[in-house]
Amino acid sequence: GDVRALAGDSSDNIPGVPGIGPKIAASLINDFGSLNDLLARADEIKQKGRREKILNNADMARLSRKLVELEKLIPLDKIEMESPSTYLSSLDSMADLRMDGLNASRLLDFYHKMGFWDMKQRVKERMMQKGLLNERNYADSGSMGASSLTSSSTGRDLTSDTENSASKGQTSFNRLIVNKRKKLSPPKPEEFDDIPF
Description:
One of its GO terms (biological process) is DNA replication, Okazaki fragment processing. This protein is mainly alpha-helical. The protein has 11 helices and no strands.
């Protein structure tokens, strides 16, 4: 965290010390041990330019260090979730949180709705190999239907598109071409009531 605090990180809006990059920051922290020690002994920095940058921006370095540090003490009563408030009230700390077992159908439905075709296909194949999912159980979940088609090039489920285009009398080849070009609208967060967006 000390190196990042000195060098800054624009992707996380951590300002750092202007003119100090990752290599110089790493060198300084290596020489002085920590950011606090570096700031306390800044007059000992041999290079005049670096010394002035550190001395003139010590407050910025301290602020950046706070921004880099992850908050570890999160009160559970401050976590906002829609339905599981009774569940949260029975917890004493974040360590008490446990993950439920994987619901394969819901995961694959989520991947389908989000358009993660390759990921959906890979997960589906692995689950079927391990016996965690069979085609009949997943077909009953509603998203695939009993006679699902999957594009081998994209791993995308083509059942609903194929049924629509079949009613228009198109050939299978044309249906696949149409499906590859079809643009899907992104799903809405409210479609996933169990995921806190």
